[in-house]
Amino acid sequence: MTALLETVRTLAEGFAATAGERDRSGAFPHAPIASLREAGLIGLAAPERLGGGGGGLVRAAQVVGAIGAGDPAVALVLAMTLLQHGLIHRDGTSWPRALADRVGREAVTNGALINALRVEPDLGTPARGGLPATIARRDGGDWRVTGRKIYSTGAPGLSYGLVFARTDEAEPRIGNWLVPMSSPGIRIEESWDHLGLRASGSHDVVFEETFVPGDHAVDLRRPEDWRRPDPLQQAWSCALLATLYDGVARAAQAWFRHFLHERVPGSLGAPLASLPRFHEAFGENERLLSINARLVASLAAETDAGAPPAPQEAGFVKLTVTENAIQAVQRVAELCGNAALSRNNPLERHLRDVLCARIHWPQGDAVRVAAGRAALGV
């Protein structure tokens, strides 16, 4: 574990050195992803019997957090792949075993990336309900998929898209189709031009009568059966997103430390690090980051022990950790003045990136509403 984390930190330092360039251009991080492949990190969560790292959520969270401190856009692409492998190889999965094994082996041997493509222009996030507009229709024993997915993280580098769609049956089922992204009838529209995580390649993906083999319909259910959150999925997703944004805050805190030691105002004649005001501010950030570490570690450890908490509790962790991260970065920005917002410094990028935490599901209002309804019994 120690050797793995040392490798990851070295990679993260290299990613950090070029993250600003990718942020400005919005270019997909092909070179960093290639470095992750070479280090065997794409297959980190694939089972050992397939040649993978056999890593659980504890290890995945540590890796994503460290990479997030270097370049969170790279970390997000990695996190989405690790999340899927954390789910598709578990006992009781709806996936055909041979198909899950194929995806796992390709992650190990080829560094194949996978992500769930769920969000649509009209539907928004499916977690809030509604039927997807993307249609899967029967073509003999196989399928044809047509639709548009937006915010498809990692789109330029994906080997597989796990496409959320509905059947064209009289009583539609909804679910996931595993679609090889090299299939004919797929195009990527480079629409991603956001405030933060600009290099994540979260573009639109359009499917036009895309052929999908029959056994690639990996999880079809009645619409009402999707209303119950999956504790394991929620735990992996919340832990990885939480640690990613915590990594951004840790990068901001490291920059703050350097700034306080190096900045020597003429009126003071000593570094800002000598002032009690900054001792308190830096210490408050340390408090928030310490809490974050314990929350993520607890959630990940319980999940690896086979007892993922209720989805509501995983949502609490994601919300608390990300809000702590946002507070920490905003505090640094407020105290550093103009230097914080200069594009010559990475802090303004950290500020933009960390705010993306509020957009990632589960969002704050959904966490609070679900908790309130459960507590009130309504």
Automatic annotation (TrEMBL):
InterPro entries listed in its UniProt record: Acyl-CoA_DH_C (IPR013107), Acyl-CoA_Oxase/DH_mid-dom (IPR006091), Acyl-CoA_Oxase/DH_mid-dom_sf (IPR046373), AcylCo_DH-like_C (IPR036250), AcylCoA_DH/ox_N (IPR013786), AcylCoA_DH/ox_N_sf (IPR037069), AcylCoA_DH/oxidase_NM_dom_sf (IPR009100), Mito_Isobutyryl-CoADH (IPR052547)
Tell me where in this chain the Acyl-CoA dehydrogenase C-terminal domain is found.
Answer: 247-360
Record keywords, A-Z: Flavoprotein, Oxidoreductase
Q: Which residues form the Acyl-CoA dehydrogenase/oxidase N-terminal domain?
A: 3-93
- Which CDD domains does the record cross-reference, listed alphabetically? ACAD
The answer on whether this UniProt entry bears the keyword Hydrolase reads: no
Q: According to its UniProt record, what is one Pfam family this protein matches?
A: Acyl-CoA_dh_M
Q: Which residues form the Acyl-CoA oxidase/dehydrogenase middle domain?
A: 120-209
Q: What is the protein's name according to its record?
A: Acyl-CoA dehydrogenase YdbM
| Name of the coding gene | ydbM_2
